[in-house]
Amino acid sequence: MTVSITDVARATGVSASTVSRALRGQPGVSDEVRAQITTVAARLGYTASRSASSLASGRTFTIGVVVPYVGRWFFGTVLDAAERVFSAAGYDVLLYNLGSTETRKRFFTKMPVRKRVDAVLSLLIPDEEESFALRSLGVPLATTVGGPRPGFTVVGIDDHAGTESAVRHLVNLGHRRIGMISGSSGLQHWTTPVERRRAYLDVLADAGIEHDPALEADGDYTVEGGERAMTELLAVSRPPTAVFAQSDEMAMGALRALRRHRLKVPDDVSVVGFDDHELADVIGLTTVAQPVAGQGAEAARLLLRQLDEPEAEPPRHVQMPIRLVLRETTAPPYPRGPQ
Q: What separation in angstroms does the CA of 198 have from each of 129, 159, 162, 298?
C-alpha cells in the first residue's frame, strides 16, 4: 500500500500540515519534532506526491541552473552543493550548460525555462538583455558570480580583498618581481579577473613597485593554461621571483611548468593561488580560501526561502568570508643579486 502523509501524521501524533512543513524544511516546526517526523517518514517509506504538491501549490518543484562550464571545478563544486540543498527540499534541478556562443544565444532567445522552473540559479554573468530576459520569468533569481545586480540575490566574496591579501603577502616576503597569471573575462562577462587584476595593480602601486606588463599572462582558468602562462613568464628577460595565480588550477599548472624547468618552489619562485581547491592542501599550495561549496549551498537556501516566504524582502548581496592560507609554496626571494 502507498503510504500517505496522513499515515505519517498518525504515526507521529501531529497534524498532516505539520508533517508537510517539516518535510519541506519550512519554519514553525521544532528540530526535535522535525527529526521525529523525518525518521518515521523514512521508516514507513513515505514519498511525497509530486503531482499533488504541484496542484496544491502551483509549483513545478524544479530549479533551473544555468552554468558556463559545467566541467570546471569551481562551477561543478557550486552546482553539487546547491543540488544537495534543492534535493533535500524535494526539488529537482534542470541544468543548462551555456559554454558556447551558440548555446547561450539560443537559451536567451527561446528561454526554455519559462513555466518549467520555480527559480533560477545563474552561475554566469548575464548582460543587460540577458538579465532582462531572466527577470521576465517572474521567479526568484540568484547567482554566485559577480557583484550586486538588480533582481538577483548575489552570494559571493570580495575578490579585491582576497587578491590584495595574496599579493601583499608576496610583497611582505620581499618580492619585487611579482607576476600574475589571470583569466580573460571574454564571452562570459566575468568581473572576477578584472577585480583581481585591479587589486594586483593596487598592491604593486602601494608598495612602490613599477608595473611590468611582461609579468602578466593569460592562463584561461585551467591547469593547462596556467602551465602555458608560467612558461611565458619564465621566458621574459627578467622573470618573476613570485607569481600570483587567479585560481588554484592555474597555480597547479604553474607548478608543473616550474618543475619541468627544474626550478624549485619556493626557493626559485614563490606561487600563490586562489580558491583553496580540494587538492591545494595535498600539494602544499599557499592560497586564498573561499567557501566555494558554501556559496552554492547558501544561494540555494536563499532561493528556497524566497519560494516559501514570497512576501519577505530577499537579500541582494551576501558576502562570504575569505582567508589567506599559508602553506609551502611561498618564501622570501633567494638572494641572487638585484631583482
A: 27, 10, 12, 27
Closest CA to 330 of 279, 282, 285: 285
SS (H, E, C) 87-120: HHCCCEEEEEECCCHHHHHHHHHHCCCCCCCCEE
Q: CA 246 to CA 251: how far, in whole Å?
A: 8
Q: Which amino acid is at 64?
A: G
Instruction: Tell me the per-residue pLDDT of 279-303, one tens digit each, with 9 for 90 and over.
Output: 999 999 999 999 999 999 999 999 9
Query: Shortest CA distance to 278 belongs to which of 292, 296, 265?
Result: 292
Among residues 144, 118, 148, the alpha carbon closest in space to that of 293 is found at 144
Distance, CA of 217 to CA of 283 (rounded, Å): 23
Other C-beta atoms closer than 10 Å to the C-beta of 34 total 18
d(CA 43, CA 196): 51
Average pLDDT of the chain? 90
Question: 91 with 62: CB under 8 angstroms?
Answer: yes
What is the enclosing helix (H) or strand (E) of 154?
Answer: strand 153-156
**How many Cα atoms within 13 Å fall on the side-chain side of residue 327?**
20
Residue 287 grid coordinates? 592560497
E strand or H helix at 274, and its extent? strand 270-275
What is this structure's pTM? Answer: 0.81
